[in-house]
Structure formats: structure tokens, C-alpha cells
Amino acid sequence: MGNCCESAANFFGPQKNTNMRVSLPAVCFVWQIAMIVLFGVFIRYDEESDAHWIEYRRENNITSDIENDFYFRYPSFQDVHVMIFVGFGFLMTFLKRYSYGGVGFNFLIAAFGLQWALLMQGWFHALNPETGKITIGVESLINADFCCAGSLIAFGALLGKVSPVQTLVVALFGVTLFAVEEYIILDLLHCRDAGGSMVIHCFGGYYGLAISWVLYRPNLHLSKRHHGSIYHSDLFAMIGTLYLWMYWPSFNSAITDHGDGQHRTAINTYLALASSVLTTVALSSMHQKRGKLDMVHIQNATLAGGVAMGTAAEFMITPYGALIVGFCMGIISTFGYLYISPFLEKTLKLQDTCGVHNLHAVPGMLGGFIGAIVAAAASESVYGREGLINTFDFEGEFADRTPGTQGGFQAAGTCVSIAFGLVGGAIVGFILRFPIWGDPGDDNCFDDEVYWELPEDEETVPPVLEYNNHMIHKQQEISESNFSVEQS
Amino acid sequence: MGNCCESAANFFGPQKNTNMRVSLPAVCFVWQIAMIVLFGVFIRYDEESDAHWIEYRRENNITSDIENDFYFRYPSFQDVHVMIFVGFGFLMTFLKRYSYGGVGFNFLIAAFGLQWALLMQGWFHALNPETGKITIGVESLINADFCCAGSLIAFGALLGKVSPVQTLVVALFGVTLFAVEEYIILDLLHCRDAGGSMVIHCFGGYYGLAISWVLYRPNLHLSKRHHGSIYHSDLFAMIGTLYLWMYWPSFNSAITDHGDGQHRTAINTYLALASSVLTTVALSSMHQKRGKLDMVHIQNATLAGGVAMGTAAEFMITPYGALIVGFCMGIISTFGYLYISPFLEKTLKLQDTCGVHNLHAVPGMLGGFIGAIVAAAASESVYGREGLINTFDFEGEFADRTPGTQGGFQAAGTCVSIAFGLVGGAIVGFILRFPIWGDPGDDNCFDDEVYWELPEDEETVPPVLEYNNHMIHKQQEISESNFSVEQS
Amino acid sequence: MGNCCESAANFFGPQKNTNMRVSLPAVCFVWQIAMIVLFGVFIRYDEESDAHWIEYRRENNITSDIENDFYFRYPSFQDVHVMIFVGFGFLMTFLKRYSYGGVGFNFLIAAFGLQWALLMQGWFHALNPETGKITIGVESLINADFCCAGSLIAFGALLGKVSPVQTLVVALFGVTLFAVEEYIILDLLHCRDAGGSMVIHCFGGYYGLAISWVLYRPNLHLSKRHHGSIYHSDLFAMIGTLYLWMYWPSFNSAITDHGDGQHRTAINTYLALASSVLTTVALSSMHQKRGKLDMVHIQNATLAGGVAMGTAAEFMITPYGALIVGFCMGIISTFGYLYISPFLEKTLKLQDTCGVHNLHAVPGMLGGFIGAIVAAAASESVYGREGLINTFDFEGEFADRTPGTQGGFQAAGTCVSIAFGLVGGAIVGFILRFPIWGDPGDDNCFDDEVYWELPEDEETVPPVLEYNNHMIHKQQEISESNFSVEQS
């Protein structure tokens, strides 16, 4: 099989150099050593994870260890962690010969990105100006996972077309851009976006799409043989889908306010997700001439309700409001997979392997605007006086903000995230076009063979068929020669 | 392959119409719109998930946000959620060509059913007579998941033999019946059944069996080629098994009393499950002439201990009592798979794809009676005076109940659940016999081809063999013609 | 295929008797009945899971049910539970034809071992001298799971080469030895080892290696055809890897101190794991001539950071200290897979199927020594006066211990665990050499066929190729005879 690939490559020109032996280890080592140094200079435990907690607790009249933020957030953190590594990871195993790359590079990007995220987010949000140190706790870990999610979404658009070193470049810039846009949106504009419709999904989606657009491969059809799923690869991908779907209420509620904030966010997300399953199934079935369902839609569009509730889920959107959001998002996302993606590929030359446009970019953007509308509609009668202040954090310099103004800022925040995604992605895309990154040739995409040592006995069918066809051909030749011998 | 199926169908009469293009989208849309309207009229956040919580907390002297029920129950909720979607879903992927249907329709049923469950259970348990509203919180989400479990169990008996629209009908009636029998058992009879041996497993099992009995297919042997597992489909099913097994302590303890109630339930369930693994392995090995283990038993009967502890786990059954329950259930369930299921299929014409009779119906029923016995044996010396009142909720109009009486009511509750399952299932079965639901023909069962768009390059062996045989035959013909040419 | 194996066996002498029909059920039944009797005599609920809790709570001025240890530890317990059954289980599915054995026997060992662990650990740690009873709660369940982990690690070294009865013997002695060494290390030497670098990983690793060394099979190359992975078996193994990786922070923090203890442990483990991913990738890529990654390293060495932080994670190792540990462990573990394991197999005759030497034995041992160094370096200025006492439990008879002394005892504890592993393993190995256990022949290892009823239609490629080659040969013979007919 290796031979066959190489000969195909030779046919279309010299094969690209995909040797990672120097660049990948170099990047990993340099990066990890830099992290150690920077962590040594900057990162310390916060008061809740430091051994001085026992004294801190007494001084602050905290009655019990259970008041430690760990117990409020750790279960949600673990759910988010599963979404990042198993959810995103297995969702990207759907390609027949790129499952190692899907789950493995996802693992690499996230482990690489979360360290940089702790630093970047720390500098912007948790730097103690006196000591010059960043202090971290369980909420920082959740935020670091969130920050990686943006880059993993971008990776979804590039799946199968980039080298591992390129994925690390995507993560490096992705995390950096994320921290900046998050600072602008959450701190400067004082938006609320606990589940990250804007800062995670909208940004990550457009970031990935912009990169992919710059990296357009006109001859990608040469890799067509690997561009599809097989029965069991789609089943592996369902593991990813289901973990994303089930744990999304934890994703959106992981860093919302203690008490009713986390509680309400989980309920709203749960309902929106249920609703988007039904409209996804409906649209998927309507499209096929015999009403058959398409795994691509079930794997992806069912999640759109969770994406779109990332901003509004902590507001009093009401349970039926959550159902309506899920209803619309299931339709919009499935519609995107059916019509928009092929259209974008044809007209805009946009190759989006996982369809992040339909699952993250658009639902994230709409989620930002839904959040703006729900925020603008907030009132003291619905939230209670204290509830309103609490939910939107109308305190300090923002004490005189009205819900209407807040809505405007939320909408502005969404635009910021789109701008950061598109501009940042375009720049990163150009950086990735330098011919030094070891990306695969157009005829060699979506193939684990390039970056992974594969087991010798392969199980997939195509090589078997090839082998047998080969034997049968040989056999035919024998028969034919046989035939000719006879005739002579 | 499509051609071959069709020709087979033609041989046995006109193929059934399995086109879902109108009915499935119609049901999904109508249902989801109805849900939005009903949620709009009825469903609101409860005081712990409403933005007024901050005021409610102060008024009720709740000292900390950690007292919000969210923190008592959310981790268990997420475990239950995983059991419903990954546990049940992947357990049903064991068939070689129905894995999409197993995990996909399970997903659809649950997302469809949980919305209806919030309404049905709300009307019976959480309707505020003054406002006319149902208020929901994390406990409602757990109950909604539980309610779906009944219908998913029923789906296990029907796996591969029904259309997606039929599964939705099963869920619609299943959730409705569940809410009514639950109201009778928990509210009117005042039974305790936190883990649902009676209301979930016993009801769900008999409900599914009754439907399957009415839908008997005399010619199901025509689908024999798809009725079995392959190596990797059994491994996917083990994902489901293990998640059910591991999280069952959360299932049984999710809605038990705060404090010792949840704690004790988890311990008892953990022990019963461990014990049933050993007796399942023992019996499975004893049955085979070389002592080999059967994956069907490992996948299913190991879970019977958890099913049977659904009622008694919150009582003071003692740790060794839990082990005894698991011991017996592993034996009974494996015995069921070995002898009872084949017997029922032969004599009662009962086709039970997943063997829910042995995993849910019988262990659930026995669990109900075990609960009755343990309740009847309760005493103040074991529970403490307050503990007894607390555990059995002997308060209000039930203040003068004795453990003995309670035991009688528990037993009566089990009978109610069986009756609801059998009668309800029979009625739903007759409804599903109308020739309008698009179910597959007898020769077309257990086949994802019917309701799913499958990847073109299939990986399973039979088509490969077929293809090769085809080539070899062709080749043989050439040789033979060759031979005849010679001879002439 | 069965036939082919049998004929191969005949070729190398009489096939071993692998019939489990008597021994496996006998062991399971006897054991489970013994457990029921012993639990009946010894095991009771502790005060937090007993129905008297409501009175206990009042008497001890516990203000809320949320103070029940259940709410501090249950989420971590469930994560540990997943690691034991899905993590270890699926990690061992990587062999192409031993996935059932990997996940199935792992399930059996753990369910068998955890009951014995509750007793053994109870006798040593939780026996009430007045009542003669052991009381159990959620922390006991976590410890029982931990105790099984030691035996599961040992099973990793033996994977594919032992019978199910032998695995139970390994677990029986493994749990017993574990409880004794744990008592010596934690109680007598007063070491801290919450995440078990010493008591779990170091002990379990050397225990398994010693057994494997005694059971050396000189003709194991006869099973070479099954000794490897296929594409999808490696993907199943990644499920195990990722769950171990994600939940390791819960593993290490599950039984550390409430409050800052659990919080800090989770952060440190999270960081060490992230760091070891990067160095694993770097080394794996450096080794291959085209820089390709090896799934064996990604599946295993990425976890070494978690293993090595089992002791030190609860100390104030600092975030960058955690990164450094992970950095080194990724390198050491990958290096082990590349060079040490082949060397040990060649020189020491050590057959270590899963490479537990590189993932558990060495990182566990080093983790013990790292813990010793970090403990010795502890100071009041870093921990605070109370924090130091609290973290190292310098109370009662250990009130006058200094950090320096503690470091010495920690190092001694590591040596104890190695000694127990090696000596205990050697003894168990000799016991397992008696020819009564039904282990497979040298030509029959790594094959599920021996102990599992497999589906008839196998999906793997080799039989297909065999079948086709057979047909093609037949065909060739026809052609050849054809040819000869002609010529005559």
C-alpha cells in the first residue's frame, strides 16, 4: 500500500517531505521547556489549593472544607475534560483511515494548548500586580480546557490536511488569540459568555475556516479514496458525539455562578440539546429520497443546541425558550451540512473536513446574538433585583448598566469574536503556507500512513480487495495465456 | 447488496414500504412544536434554579450555595445521563449490522421521551395548584431520564424489528404509562423505589415483552444472516455494559435521601454488582462444553445485581445482603439467557432481541419483592427511630404505617408495575400492527441498510466474500468456457 | 481456523488442556460464598452510610447533609471506578485477537478483588476492636478499587498468557500482599501515598514482572501471529488511555485531605500528565526514521506523569515541579518501550505484554523517590505551620517528625513496595507453574478462541485472505489441470 501511494505521488510530481523526525520533537521539547520556565516564574497555587488554606479558611470564616471551590466545580471540570479529549477526539475518528490522527493529534493539541492557556489567561485575568504571580485553581483548569476547545474546533476544519507541527502552530496562535479576544469580550465589554458561544465556538469556528480557506488545496480530490467513513469509524465517532451531547450541560455550567447559576444553565442546555436531536432527525430524513438518516447529521447537528446556548443558558431564557433555540439550531445546522457546506466548497473554495461551519461557527454566532436578545429582555420582575445584578454582574464600574445596554455589548462581543477568528485565522493560514511544515501532499491527505506507524496486518477492506483483485488478475492472465496457448 | 436484498424480498412477496421520508419528519416536528407549546404553558424553573434563589436562600436561612440541590445530585445525574445514552445505546450495538440503529434510535427515543417525561411527571408530582405551573430542577432531569429508561428497555426487546416511527410510539405510550404507574406506586401506595426495580425495570421489561409478543414475526428466520454479532460489535457493546455496570450505584442513589440515603444506596449497589459478575462467569463457563465464556452473558447478566437492588439498596439490607442478591441474580439472569429465552421463543412465540426478560423483567420483579421483604423486616433497632421514619418517609398521612404494612404495599406495587407493563404493552403492540408504520419486512430485520445511509465501502466480511466469490465464479466460468473451447 | 491451530499444536506436542468448565465455576462459587459469609461476620455500614446518620449528625453538630463524606468523594470515586473498568479494561484491548480477554478478565479480576480488598483493608485499617466489625463508606470503596489496580497492573504483564483461573489467583494474592504492604507503608512507616505511586504502581508493576519472569515461555514466538494490534484494536485501546489520562487527577486526589488537599492534587496531576504527552510524542517521533508516531507510546507513556505524581501530587511540589516530573517521565517511559523492554526480554527472559515495566514499575518507583525528596524539602514557610502538620499528618505519635525524617521514611516505603512486589510475585509465579491451571499452550497465547465463544462470522482479514487464497489455489489447480488436459 505504501508503494501504491508513492507511485501515485510520483505521478503527480515529487512527493512532499512529511518527515517529522526533527521538527516535531524540536517543537515539543522547546515548548515544554519554555512552559516549565514560565510556570516557574509565574504560576502558583491559589488560596484554595495552597496548603495555607486551613489558615485562610479560618481567617475568612469559611465554615467547611466543602465551601472550597473544588467541590462546586470539579465534577463539571471532569465532564469538560472528557468532552475535550474523548468528545472532540472521537468525534474526529469518523474518517476511515485517519482515526489515529483524529484522536491522537487532538490529544497532542489539547495537552500542548492547556499549558499555554493557563499562562495567557492568567496574565489577562489572574495576575497579582503585587507579587507578579498568577494563581490557579480548578476554575483555571476549566478555562484552560475551554481555551483549547477553540483550537480543537479549528483543527476540525483542517482534519487530515495538516501535519502535527502545523496543528501545534494552530494551537499556539489559537490560544493566544483566544486569550486576547476573551479579555476584550469578557473584561472590557463586560459580556457574559460562560459556555462560550462567542469566545469558544464562534471564534474557533471562524478561525478554523479562515485557515482552511487560505490553505485551499485545489487537488484534494486526489485523496478522495480516504475521504469518507466506514461502518465502524462512524460508530467510534458516535462515542465522541454522545459524550459531547451528554456533558454539554456541564460545559455551559462549569464556570457560571454558584447556586442557581449552575443549576439553571444545566437545565437550559439539557433541553436545547434534546430539542435539536428531533429537528436534526427530521431534516436528515426529509432530505434522503427513502427517508434514511445520515450519520454525519446525527453526529454533528444534534449538538448545535448546546453550542447556541453557550451564552444564554445562564440567563432566564425559560425552559420553552431553550427548546425553541434547540429546535432552530437542529434545522440550521443540518441544513448547513446539506446545502451550505457544498456551496461554500464550490464557490468560496472552502474545504471544511468536519463541517465546523455548521456546528460551531454559525450556531456559535447565533448563540451570541441570542444571548444579546435575552440579555436585553431581562427585567427585575423576572430575575428579582438581586438576581439581575448577580446574573449580569452589574457591579463596580458596571453598576449602572441596563439590560438593554448589556444586550448591545453582547452583540458587539459576538462581532469581536468573528473578527478575531477571521483575521487571526487568515494570518495563521499564511504562516502555515510556508513550505517548511511537513504537511501531506494533495494525494496523501486523510491518511494515517503519513504520520503514524500502522499495524502490519491491516483490517480494512480496500487492500484486501486490491490484493484479491491482484490475484484474480494474475489468475486471469494465466487463464488467458492458457487460452492463447491453446489457440496457437 | 441492496439488489440482493430486494431480490430476496421479491421472492417472498412484495417488499414492505419502509420509506420514512414523510412520517418521521412529521412526527418529530409535530411533537417538538407540541412540546414547545406545552412547556411554554406549564414549565418553569424551581426555586433552586431561578434567579430569585439569592433571595429565597436568605429567606430560608440557607447558609451556603452548596446547599442547592444541584450539588447533591448533579454528579449522579450526569452518571445516569451516561447510562441512558452511552450505556443503553452501546449495549445495543452488539448486532453485526444494526449498530447505528441501536445507538441512534436509542438517542432519538431518549431525547424525544425526556421532554414528555418532564411534563407527565410534572403534572403528577410537581404541579403547583395555585399557579398551574410545573417547576423543574436537577431532580426532575434525573426522573425524566429514568422515565425514558423504561421505554429504552422495551426498545431492547424490539431491537431491529421496528421502524424509527414505531420506536417513538413506544416511547410516547411508554412514558405516559410510566408516569401513571409511578404515581400509583410511589404516591398512592407510598412505596419506596428510588432505583426503580419496579417502576423502571419491571415495568419496562414487561412492556417491551408484551409489545414484542403481539408483534411476533413467524418468518424472522429470514433475517438470520444479520442476527448475530461480530468480534468488534461485541466489543462496542462492552462499552455499554461497563458504563451501565460502573454507574449503576449512581443510578440507584441519584434520587435517594441526602446524606446516608445516597451513601448507603451506592455501597449496596456496588456490592451486588460485583457479586453478580462472579456468578455470571461461573454459570456461563459451566454451560459450555470447554468452559468458554459467552459474551452475551458477560454483557448482560453481570448487570442483574444492579437491577435487583433498585428498590432495596436504600434500605439497611446490609453489605452481605447485597452480595446475596447479586449472587442469586447473576445465576438467575444467566440461566434465563441459556434456557428461559429459547423456551419462551419456542413456546410463547416471544422474540426478545436483547433478552430484556432476563436482564430487566425478572430481576426487576424479584427486586420489587426483595424490597418488600427488606422493608417488612425493618425495625427501629436497626434503623434508629428517626432513621426508620426518614428512610420510609412515614410522615403525614402515612405516619402510622408499620414496616410490615409497608412490605405489603411494596409487593402490591410490584404487581401494579407488571400489570401496567403487560396490559399497556399489549395495547401498544396492537397499535403498532397497523400497516402504516414503515417497519421492515421479515427478511429485512436487524439491518441498518433500511433506515440509514451507509458508507459505500463496507468493511464487513460477507460482502467481500460475496464479491470475491462472484469474481471467482466469473473466473471459473471463463476457465470452463475455456475448457469447452478446448474440447470442441 | 480452529483446525489450523489444533494442527499447529499437534505439531509441537499434545495440546494443553484449557478446559475451564470445572475450575472456573468452582473458584467463582466458592469464593463468592466465602465472601458472603465473611461479609456477614465482619462488614457493616459506617456512621455516614448507616440510617442512624440523622442522629449521629445532630450529636456531632454537623450542620448539613452535604458534610457527609459521600459528597466530598463520590464524584472522584466514580472517576476511579471508570479508570479501573474502562481505563485498564480497554487499554488491554489492543491485541488483535485478545480484546475480549483484555476487557473481560479485567472485569472479572476487579469484581473478584474488590470484595476481598474491602475485607483485607478493613482488617488492617477499619476494624473496630470493640465490636469486631469493619465499617465501610465511600472511601473504602475507593481503596478497594485502588487495591484491585495493583492486580490489574500485574495482569497487564501476563495478558494473553494466563487462564482466567490464574488471573483470579493473581488477584487473590495480589490483594492480600497489597493490604499488607500498604499497612506497613502507610501505618507503620507513616508514609503519605494518596495516589499510590508506591503502594499501587510500583508494587503492582514489580509483582506482575516477577510473575511473568517465573512463567517465562521460551516458545512464545509460536503465538506470534496473534501478538500485535490491528487498526481498530488500537483505537479501542485509545478509549482506555484517554479515560485513564483524563481521570488521573481524580485517582490521585480521591482520598487526599478535604479542601486544599484534593484541590492541589488534582492540579498537579493535570499538569504532569499534560507535560508527559509532549515528551512522549517527541521521543516517539525521534525514534522512527520518518518521524512517525507509535501508538504503543501514545497509549502508554503519556500516562507516566500521572503514575509518578501518585505520591507527590498532594505536596506543595509547585506547578512547574509537576511539569518537570511529567517531562522526565514521558521521556523515561517512552525510552523504556523503545529500548529497555526489548533488552529485558532478551537478557532477563522477561515477557511483559503491556510493558508494565515502563508504565508502572519504573515511574511508580521514581514517583516514590520524588515523593521522598519533595517531603524532605517541605518547610513551614511554604506549607504554613498548620498546613505542614495537616499535609503530612504529623500528629499523635508522629508529632515530632521532621520533613527530613519523613523523606527518609518515604524512600524506605518505596523499597518495601518493590520488595513485596518482587518476592510476592516470584512466589505466586511458582504457584502458577503447577500444571493444573488450564493456561494456554505456547502456540495458543493471545487468542480469545481459547476461553471465549467467538462469533461465527469473523471479521478479521487473515481468514478472508486464507479463504480466498484457498479458492484461488483451487482455481489455479483447475486451470493447471486444464492446461495439462490441453497439452495431452
Automatic annotation (TrEMBL), chains A, B, C:
Homotrimer. One of its GO terms (cellular component) is plasma membrane. SUPFAM superfamilies: Ammonium transporter (SSF111352). It is a multi-pass membrane protein. Keywords: Ammonia transport, Cell membrane, Glycoprotein, Membrane, Transmembrane, Transmembrane helix, Transport. GO terms for biological process: ammonium homeostasis. Functions as an ammonia transporter. May play a role in the elimination of ammonia in the gill. It comes from Salarias fasciatus (Jewelled blenny). This is Ammonium transporter Rh type C 2. Belongs to the ammonium transporter (TC 2.A.49) family. Rh subfamily. The chain crosses the membrane at residues 22-43, 80-98, 105-124, 136-160, 167-186, 198-216, 228-247, 267-286, 298-317, 323-340, 361-378, 411-432. The gene is LOC115388557. It holds the Pfam family Ammonium_transp. It is found in: Cell membrane. GO terms for molecular function: ammonium channel activity. The keyword Transport applies. Residues 70-433 form the Ammonium transporter AmtB-like domain.
